[in-house]
Design goal:
The longest helix has 28 residues, at 128-155. 71% of the residues lie in helices and 0% in strands. With 207 residues, the chain is mostly helical.
Length: 207
């Protein structure tokens, strides 16, 4: 058995452990920004750790120390890009809260580059690891969007479907993406009201 140090034997204070060099957060941001740019330019299949290293100026070993594979890197870049916080339920009723939430969601989706969305959708179909990571992010974001407004509505006497949160997450983003990408139309106030009044409220109430 190794002998105790003299400091330990004499009740002295042990030396604190030597700390490693602090992680450079600015390097992280550079890597993630480079990942998003390349993902939009070349797509998920052609994206490589080598290309991200070259674009960001970071060593490939640095990137692999932070992210175990391409899917983890892309997921981290998406999380870095989408850190906006959904609005809280401040209106007096469910309709008002949904109008505010859907307006916010439409702005978030409209601000995304179409090339980036397409690259992510294609990547999720071809890479199970990326699909797993993206679904984790989506589930977290869905809960952040819907938990408080729906809980408040139930407290105020709304009779909602047991699947209300899931239904909102399935329908609202899909309709907004269709409006922006397929129809090429803006998510203006009349459209937001149509989505809430004619689709979401009847669906969430189980009508």
């Amino acid at each position: 058995m190794a002998r105790a140090s003299s400091g330990s034997r004499n009740g002295g204070t042990a030396r604190p452990p030597v700390m490693g060099r602090p992680r450079d957060t600015s390097r992280d941001l550079t890597i993630l920004d480079a990942t998003l740019s390349l993902l939009t330019e070349v797509g998920y299949e052609q994206l490589s750790m080598e290309a991200v290293a070259s674009r960001s100026g970071a060593a490939k070993t640095t990137i692999y120390r932070r992210y175990r594979d391409k899917a983890a890197l892309v997921a981290a870049a998406v999380e870095h890009r989408s850190q906006a916080t959904p609005p809280g339920p401040v209106a007096g009723d469910l309709r008002g809260d949904l109008l505010g939430l859907v307006s916010w969601l439409a702005r978030q989706i409209a601000e995304q580059e179409i090339g980036l969305l397409g690259a992510l959708f294609a990547g999720m179909r071809s890479d199970a690891r990326l699909a797993e990571e993206m679904r984790r992010i989506l589930r977290r974001d869905e809960a952040a969007m819907t938990d408080e407004p729906l809980r408040k509505a139930i407290r105020h006497g709304e009779q909602l479907s047991p699947r209300a949160a899931e239904l909102f997450a399935e329908v609202a983003p899909a309709v907004i993406v269709h409006r922006i990408v397929i129809a090429g139309e803006p998510c203006d106030e009349p459209f937001i009201e149509h989505l809430v009044d004619d689709i979401l409220l009847p669906l969430l109430r189980g009508h």
